[in-house]
Amino acid sequence: MTDLLLTGVRVWSNGDAACDLAIADGRIAAIGPGLSTDAPEVFDGRGCLVIPGLVDAHAHVDKTLWGTPWHPHQAGPSVLDKIENERRVLKTLGLSPEVQSARLLRHMVARGTTHVRTHVDIGPDVGLAHFHGVQAMRDSHRDWIDVEIVAFPQTGVMIRPGTLELLEQAVREGAEAVGGIDPVGIDRDPKGQLDGLFAIAERHGCGIDIHLHDRGDMGAVTIDMIVERTRALGLAGKVAISHAFCLGMLEPARLDGLIEALLELDIAIMTHAPSGPTPFPPIRLLHDRGVRLFSGSDGVRDTWGPLNTGDMLERAFLLAYRSGFRDDPSIEIALRMATYGGAAIMGAEGYGLTVGSAADLVLVEAETAAEAVAFHPPRRLVVKRGRVVARDGRSLLPPAA
Ligand SMILES: [Zn+2]
Known about the structure:
The protein is of the alpha/beta class. The protein contains 11 helices and 17 strands. It has helices spanning 79-93, 97-110, 129-140, 163-172, 190-204, 216-232, 252-264, 283-289, 312-323, 328-346, 369-375, and strands at residues 4-11, 19-24, 27-32, 41-44, 49-52, 54-59, 113-121, 146-152, 177-181, 207-211, 239-242, 268-270, 293-294, 361-364, 379-384, 387-391, 394-395.
């Protein structure tokens, strides 16, 4: 029996013609014109575009200031400045990672996000408190959104003794991946940090996702070291590099060698198209060569900056805008990063828009995918496993405490 019928919709990549989409038991049961069903709920799509649920595969929901009074940005320009400022502000504000992450998730659901992979701060100063907070939020939001956790050493690994043990404990307790941060720029010990992270991944079979802001050759050499370890430990397909600013500033021959290595070991690259003059990976080139790409909001309204909004259609717009994309096929690459790319990294079961896929989808007021990215208009309906979770831009989730 059909549970929900969407009439008069256009399905991304399924041609221009309007059709109906039937949902049963949390899955897409049929797509076609004039479906007649006994569905208890029928929604007039009025020509809206159906896209799969948006995937925010690089967020930091534990330390957002979402829902709190406006906080003027105070941090200095470097990564270290931002880390020090963050520790100071978070200590002063004393916010609950569980409540803050729930506040942001509610907003993300309203914007059509059905899957989030979040890096959660772990270190000697906060221990596993953020991790346990986000885990509790994940449990209470299971029916609304899928959440995956990367155990993230924000303040460094080798310069903070005890961090590796905490990261491993988080993986034992259910973190899906272990994170890292600038093995050279923060730790000044790339061998120590990378050997430690890869050993955890090897012991537990978890993924690795490393924040790499280090630029130029420092970043490129770090990627060489990540490649060596991925190959030596047989971790192909389990490793991602986030930001990888250096890929946007290398001379062609050096970049080409790195691309070959990324392809050989199926190492994925995450970019959120950073603001200002910050270099970032050449999306069109990497896509055309076949490198796996995904995206995320990164920090949303936190002490790193006030501008990110947690809207993955807007994120796709920013990816396209900063990349100088104008033609529809290029703009669609940005939307694929915000949907299929992130879903692949998360191993999202049944993700997609074909019959039999999980019914995680979004109705957008747009004719085409490129228009949806260009205008990132209101989301008319958001469906998670067949259930409506947001309508006309409003989440149906009750507000966080
Ligand atoms: Zn990040």
